Amino acid sequence: MNEHVTSFGSTASGEAVEQVTLRSGALSCGILTYGGALRFLTAPDKQGHPVDVVLGFDTMEDYQKQDKYMGALVGRHANRIGGSKFSLDGKSYSLAANDGSNHLHGGILGFDKQLWKLESVSDNQAVLSLVSPDMQEGYPGNLSVRVTYTLEGGALTIRYIAQTDRKTICNLTNHSYFNLAGHASGPVLDQEIQLVAQNFTPADNESLPTGVLAPVAGTPMDLRKLTPIGTHIDDGFDQLRWAGGYDHNWAVDGEAGVLRPAARAVCRTTGISMDVETTLPGIQFYSANYLDGCPAGKDGTPYAKRWAFCMETQFFPNATNCPAFAQPVLAPGETFDHTTVYRFATV
Ligand code: BGC
User: Fold this and answer.
1) Active site residue 192
2) Does residue 312 have an active-site annotation?
3) Per-residue pLDDT averaged across 259-271, rounded?
4) Which of 39, 245, 274, 325 could form a disulfide with 316 if both were Cys (CB 3.0 to 4.6 A apart)?
5) Would the pLDDT of 1 be above 90?
6) Which of helix, strand or coil describes residue 54?
7) Residues above pLDDT 70, as percent of the chain
8) Which atom from ligand 1 is nearest to the alpha carbon of 291?
9) What predicted TM-score, i.e. pTM, was given to this entire model?
């Protein structure tokens, strides 16, 4: 342990969990070795007062009780894979089904529920690693993952690196729940969102993309201009009705592999803005339709439906079953190397 690392109790099976605190200028954040989860992130409001803009829990017991992927690093494959099946080079693989018959966020023992190793820590940077053994949750290949959290220049940057010894699929993200008015401030419906995307991937009623890209123009999925989250969320549009709000993947404009703008969010009350940039092809904008207050969050706050939003950068959900989408395939000798930046400022 050092000045940046404190104990965060232990898991139900007695493994010690640590919290790492990073600081840079007016930003600070806390990251748990459990799930590599971002537990707090404070950014200054327009008066310069620190606001904790992510949801989280106060105890390890609550982290283990919840099933919302709160702040966690998600893998080996973020979001859904239909029928919990995919094939690679003609060989089919069955994954753990944990969302009806589908596979969600890496399965029953996803990366969000594993203990990450703290490789190094400095004032503003922490490196976490994890090795996911061959056939864990059904995925082929021993996958070595390194995630670097860096606070710098008003931004939190998350860099994901992974390598495998056997061809596999890999799609890593972070599942932070943001509320730019503060984690305990209630619904986010008046916070404004912009997604830099002309197209989204329509999903079926199990939230599985069907394999086509659809233009957002003329639909409530058009968030190309800053729009309050609540403006269209309850429109009688099947995509929104089926998911209880926004829970879809948008195809970020521009070239994947290049860091480019993906999203922006603004809260007029605190004046805090967040710009998201990513090298990944897509972004899941999720309006926390399934938050249910259980267990209570930090400071006993009963986080409820739509009290936050997630901006999960990713390969498109179900891409392995949709040949037209970029494939999240990783072969030996290749490196999965993607970066997402969350940049904070005030308006
Ligand atoms: C998914 C939601 C899911 C949530 C889990 C999101 O990424 O798209 O459908 O319920 O994660 O908390």
Assistant:
1) no
2) yes
3) 99
4) 325
5) no
6) strand
7) 100
8) 12
9) 0.98
